[in-house]
């Protein structure tokens, strides 16, 4: 390796790390969320009673979206909501983004902070609007 290659290698590494910090998987997440929103079996009222097939999911405060999206999709998986493969991929994507500290604008820590809870549809709409705003 020559000395003239060193700046190129350092710049390439820096560029890759900056891209990784800003990667949020917007297109993939929008696609998964749209598929879930199109499934009418997911639209049911928010009930906070035990044994309900529909749970109240966290509507995140700004900067805490990723942690709340992880928590909400985890609750949906526990409630056995179909379609499970798409929901599983969505949950895994959010968890990976949170674990790797990617998508910094949506993750000021790993705790979900919210003031309100909503239906599955409201939760999925929040995911979709959040990522559509980023994808512009």
Automatic annotation (TrEMBL):
Transmembrane segments: none annotated. One of its GO terms (molecular function) is interleukin-9 receptor binding. Keywords: Signal. The keyword Transmembrane helix does not apply. Residues 1-20 form the signal peptide. GO terms for cellular component: extracellular space. InterPro entries: IL-9. It comes from the Eukaryota. PANTHER family: INTERLEUKIN 9, INTERLEUKIN-9. This is IL9 protein. It comes from Piprites chloris (Wing-barred manakin). The lineage of its organism: Eukaryota, Metazoa, Chordata, Craniata, Vertebrata.
